[in-house]
């Protein structure tokens, strides 16, 4: 079965029962979001044991985290569309080229976000309203900065996983 026949078969399956096809697509996404939400709840339960200042420190990091997540997801949609378009035209080299560029963009974004966070993170947290001194380990600013440093290590993994997911989604 060549690529055209395989795509035609998948299209026929979708058209014959769109409700089932949509649920087939939606359930893994819903499960992933549910697991992420459960992870966040358990995270807050453990952090809540450290006190309100610790929760506040994490809360000040959320705008930066969601900025990175939004940037990754937004560009990922473009990656998915680009690769899917090339595959739809049976242009494997174009799809491969898009995937290679996506990985390069993911590397650049990861590096850029890491540098910006490490360089300007304390100032951004202070601008967001985190109070206290960075020298006082119990201050909200110090707790927020400690968490942001750890979070910045995970940013490249988040960016690359988002881009790899987009590449796979574009390939169908």
Task: Please characterize this protein's 3D structure.
- It is a single chain.
- This protein is mainly alpha-helical.
- It has two domains: 1-49; 52-171, no CATH class.
- Helices cover 87% and strands 0% of the residues.
- The protein has six helices and no strands.
- Helix 1 packs across helix 2 (18-48) and helix 5 packs antiparallel against helix 6 (140-171).
- The chain crosses the membrane at residues 21-42, 54-81, 102-121, 147-168.
- Keywords: Membrane, Transmembrane, Transmembrane helix, Transport.
- One of its GO terms (molecular function) is xenobiotic transmembrane transporter activity.
- This is Polysaccharide biosynthesis protein C-terminal domain-containing protein.
- One of its GO terms (cellular component) is plasma membrane.
Mean pLDDT metric? 86
Report the count of strand segments.
0
> Taking Cα atoms only, what radius of gyration do you get, to the nearest Å?
21 Å
The major beta sheet can be summarized as: none
Number of helices: 6
| Low-confidence region ranges | none
What is the molecular shape? Answer: elongated
Strand content: under 5%
- Terminal CA distance reads 16 Å
**Number of domain modules:** 2
Structural class: mainly alpha
Report the order of strands and helices.
Answer: HHHHHH
Approximate helicity band: over 70%
Keywords: Membrane, Transmembrane, Transmembrane helix, Transport
Protein name: Polysaccharide biosynthesis protein C-terminal domain-containing protein
Pfam families: MatE
GO molecular function: antiporter activity; xenobiotic transmembrane transporter activity
């Amino acid at each position: 079965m060549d690529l055209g026949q395989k795509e035609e078969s998948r299209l026929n399956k979708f058209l014959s029962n769109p409700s089932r096809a949509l649920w087939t697509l939606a359930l893994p996404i819903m499960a992933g979001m549910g697991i992420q939400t459960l992870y966040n709840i358990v995270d807050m339960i453990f952090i809540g044991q450290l006190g309100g200042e610790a929760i506040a420190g994490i809360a000040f990091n959320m705008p930066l985290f969601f900025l990175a997540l939004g940037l990754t997801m937004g560009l990922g949609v473009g990656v998915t569309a680009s690769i899917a378009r090339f595959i739809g035209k049976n242009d494997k080299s174009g799809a491969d080229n898009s995937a290679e560029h996506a990985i390069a963009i993911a590397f650049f974004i990861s590096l850029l976000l890491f540098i910006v966070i490490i360089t300007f993170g304390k100032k951004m947290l202070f601008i967001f309203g985190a109070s206290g001194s960075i020298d006082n380990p119990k201050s909200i600013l110090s707790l927020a900065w400690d968490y942001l440093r750890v979070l910045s290590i995970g940013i490249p993994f988040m960016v690359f996983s988002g881009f790899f997911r987009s590449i796979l989604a574009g390939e169908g």
